[in-house]
Design a protein that fits this description.
The protein has five helices and eight strands. The strands form two sheets. Strands 1-2-8-3-4-5 form a six-stranded mixed beta sheet. The C terminus is likely disordered. Helix 4 packs antiparallel against helix 5.
Length: 178
């Protein structure tokens, strides 16, 4: 019931332009669930969420060790991001593009590519064993630049104690026009 209260206070919607979602019961939370990637989740959205965040809802979910994902669209002052929290993993944030794909800093990739280029320059006197070591190290560094794989959300279920899990989407100040 705390999730119902927090949802009402946050003025969230369950779908863009459908009006505020004002749940008062577990049944209303369950009825609002939608299928995402074959899993029933409670999707909350708000195009006017401050900084694209649902602070109270996210804090509650983390305190109760309940997993969630939040996608916030960017605007002129900040980039889009995917925030997620799972028990045991903590809260993580990934900067994304508008297609929700992770953004990797080009300078970091260029640094690794520079090391590879230096080691593989024709006429280089680098030994074969050293070259293989450089290539393995470059591969390891490139993998480290990628975000970790995000676990799938479990189906939304409600017991007398807790609710699992939530997926939230918000715009930062204003939702991107479709």
């Amino acid at each position: 019931e705390r999730l119902c209260e927090l949802s009402r206070q946050a003025h969230v919607e369950v779908s863009w332009d459908e009006g505020m979602f004002l749940p008062h019961s577990v049944a209303e939370l369950q009825e609002a669930c939608v299928e995402v990637d074959g899993v029933m989740v409670l999707r909350l959205c708000d195009e006017q969420a401050r900084w694209g965040e649902f602070d109270d809802i996210e804090t509650f979910l983390m305190q109760e060790s309940l997993p969630f994902r939040r996608y916030s669209e960017g605007d002129y002052s900040c980039s889009p991001e995917l925030v997620y929290s799972y028990p045991g993993l903590g809260r993580k944030s990934i900067v994304t593009n508008l297609d929700r794909q992770p953004v990797i800093i080009a300078a970091d990739v260029e640094q690794v590519l520079g090391k590879l280029a230096q080691a593989t320059t024709p006429g280089s006197t680098i030994r074969r064993a050293t070259l293989f070591s450089v290539v393995r190290q470059a591969g390891r560094q490139l993998r480290e630049l990628l975000p970790e794989t995000i676990p799938p959300l479990a189906p939304f279920t409600v017991s007398s104690v807790q609710a699992l899990p939530a997926s939230t989407e918000s715009g930062r100040h204003h939702r991107r026009a479709k």
